[in-house]
Amino acid sequence: MQLNFHNSYGPRIWVAIMYYDPAGCGAYGSWGTRGWWAIDYGATAYVLNTNNRYAYFYAEASNGAVWTGPYGPIYVTQSAFTSCLNIGQTNARIVGLREVYIASNNHTVNLTP
Amino acid sequence: MSDPGDPVDGVPNEEPVDRRWLLRTSGLLGVAAGAVAAGAAGAGAAAATPAPPAGAPEVPGAFGQPPSVHASHGVGPNSAGGTSSRVGPGIAAGPEVSAAAGARLAPSKTVIDTTPLAQRTTGGVHWSTEA
Known about the structure:
The complex is a heterodimer. By secondary structure, chain A is mainly beta. Chain A has one helix spanning 22-25; strands at residues 2-7, 13-20, 31-39, 44-49, 54-61, 66-68, 71-76, 81-84, 93-101, 106-111. Chain A is globular and about 40 Å long. Chain B is mainly alpha-helical. Chain B contains 1 helix and 2 strands; from the N terminus they run H-E-E. The longest helix of chain B is centred in the first third of the chain and has 32 residues, at 17-48. Chain B is extended. Chains A and B meet through strand 1, strand 3, strand 4, strand 5 and strand 6 of A and strand 1 and strand 2 of B. Strand 10 of chain A pairs parallel with strand 1 of chain B, so a sheet runs across the interface.
């Protein structure tokens, strides 16, 4: 299943995700983390190919709007990162995530105003 | 022992005309049948071959930086016939409404900082989004 994010919001948006990865992150919570995808208005980013129906994301727009929630939380770094749920870093910040249900083989989260 | 008699038309050991025609015809038919069989086998193989895996996801970059040159532009949220969900900004309170099977996390009870990253000052480093 493919997970995409589409910017219908306006200002540029950066997206980070958490996805089920028992093979790569079995010792660190079984969930992998990855970011950042920059998405301009009207564009779509393909961020994940997974076999699991659930994933989680955090998004932040250049005007300060955030898409956040009670999941995780995860450590994110300013540079591009690929890590696991329970791996921390001294230069990281913590964000909470929203849940997304991947309803089909090609699901798009449409980030709207 | 008696010697074999001379060939009738003077061509030594030549097959009779009818037999030559049959051999050539059957040979042609065999080639044609082989080609058809090979084609059918190829078609069968193509039908049995699984669809190629989807392309790899796009490569992420740094927070605050512009999109990579590989990021797709102008693609609608449901252009490939899939599904989409509309999500406005803010703080989600709980899970998606779904009972589908799959690995899933419970909401954290930890108090989470919801301040935008670009507005946080911890560590003395500003995560700019003005690129």
